[in-house]
Amino acid sequence: MAGHARYTALLDACVLYPLAMTDALMSLATAGFFAAKWTTKIEEEWIRSLEKKRPDLVGKLFVRRDDMRVTIPDWEVSEAAWTSLARGIELPDPNDVHVLAAAIAGHADCIVTSNLKDFPNLVLMEYGIEAIDPDTFIINQWDLDPVNAIAAFKRMRARRKKPLSSPENFAYALELGGLPTTAERLRAAAELI
C-alpha cells in the first residue's frame, strides 16, 4: 500500500465518537489539510461506545459511518494490511495494538487520539509515528493555513442542522465536544465564520 503525499493521520475511535470533534477533523481533511485514515475495527469501536452511552442510537449510526466513508473515500486501512503487523507490537493497552498496526500499515505520520498514555513515545518513535491529542492536532493544522482552516470551519458551521447557530454557540459546541483551544480560536475569528 503506497503512502500519501499529504500528512496522514490515523484517527482513533475516541476522536470519531464525539460528533463535533469528528466533524471538525473531517472538515479539515476534506479541505486538504491531511489524509484521514481509520479501520473497520475502529468504526465498530466508536459505534459500539456511542450506542452503549446512547441506547436510543442503536442501529442508527450507520448513516453517519457511511457519510464519513463517502467524505473520505480513501479512509480504510484494511484488516489484511494491519493484522500481521499487530503481532509484534506491545502497548500498555493491548486493545490499542490494532490502532498502531493500522497507523504503520496506512503510512500514517501520527495517531490522533485522546488516549495519549496508551501510545508511549518510545514505542511510536520506532515507527516514526507520534500520538497527538485532537485539539492540538487541529490547532497545528490551523497554524499551517489559517485562512483555509477558518473557511473549513465556516463550511462546517453552515452544515449544522440546527437553525444557524451564532459563532459563539458554534464555538461552545466544539468546546463541549472536547476541543477547548479550537473553540477559543473560533471565538477570536467569530466575524469570519
Relevant terms:
single chain, 193 residues, alpha/beta, Rossmann fold, 2 domains
How would you sum up this structure, described in words?
The structure is a single chain. The protein has 193 residues and is an alpha/beta fold. The protein has 2 domains: 8-137, 5'-nuclease (Rossmann fold); 146-192, no CATH class. The chain has helices at 13-16, 19-30, 40-53, 62-71, 79-86, 97-105, 121-125, 134-144, 146-159, 167-176, 180-188; strands at 8-11, 35-37, 110-112, 130-132. The chain has a 4-stranded parallel sheet, with helices on both faces. Helix 7 (121-125) links the parallel strand 3 (110-112) and strand 4 (130-132). The radius of gyration is 16 Å and the shape is globular. 38% of the residues are buried. The model has no long low-confidence stretch (mean pLDDT 93).
Level of helix content?
A: 40-55%
The arrangement of helices and strands along the chain is EHHEHHHHEHEHHHH
The helix/strand class is alpha/beta
Strand order within the widest sheet?
2-1-3-4
Mean pLDDT: 93
Poorly predicted segments:
none
- The Rg value, from CA coordinates, equals 16 Å
Count of helix runs: 11
- CATH topology name of the largest domain: Rossmann fold
How would you sum up the major sheet? 4 strands, parallel
